[in-house]
Input
Amino acid sequence: MVLAACFLCGSLVGCGSQAVWQEAPAGQVVEIPTPTPTSVPTPAETPSLADAVQQVAEAMLPSEPEEAEATPTDAPALPEIDLESPMVALTFDDGPLSGSTDRILNILEQNGVVATFFIQGKQAALYPELVARAYGLGCQIGNHTYNHKDLTALNDQDALQQIESVNELVMQITGAGCSLVRPPHGKGWRDSRVLELVTYPLIMWSIDTKDWSTRNPTKTIAAVLDVVKDGDIILMHDVYTETADAAEKIIPELIARGYKLVTVSEMFSYKGLELSAGHAYRHAG
Output
């Protein structure tokens, strides 16, 4: 069957939407799953990564988050860098998606830098190998809900399900959960109920490239390079070919200007800043 997945950008002043059409594998379930017990395969079964992820996507959705898992650790020890150098965090929302995400990962790997990917659970279920590759390159995997639902429009139970189902999937793929959440459509970072409900830091941005709207590499490049400064969190979307085109120019140019490209958690740690649940962050500094 053919499914339409709408990838929406969360601008603080409003947002639009773009549709990305893709063909789902036969029998693929992409709706947020109904919570039922799931069995853990024995070592003798040795299921494939895709099978393990699909099992979680279709069969497991926790009803409530566990308190002990409120702030999981998903980043390795910090690599040594020059702390006097300016640094930024590139962030990519809504993926992964075959083609465009692959290209962005190639660019990051070729330049020896990392980024933060705020993924949708339904996309992770379709492309677990891309999540695994990003994590293996040292990138941070953030939580962008299971299927891009506005947290302010959901009841508490549904909002928690949207978040915790992604953490379960990412745990299956990488062995680590997500410690950061980016609320879809940029909604919820000023909502007291959401801030109290979500037991993870909410990560916003200081540079909105609006790549989802313009779909123009030249404009996306200018949106970053014309205004970038130390501590910026840069918003892009890895589901567009045009964004991958822009990344080919943005990443080497930032490096040439002396910027260190690090994950969101790394940037805050390097700067001695704490990321706490119940708070939203737009910039490190």
Notes: The chain is about 35% helix and 15% strand.
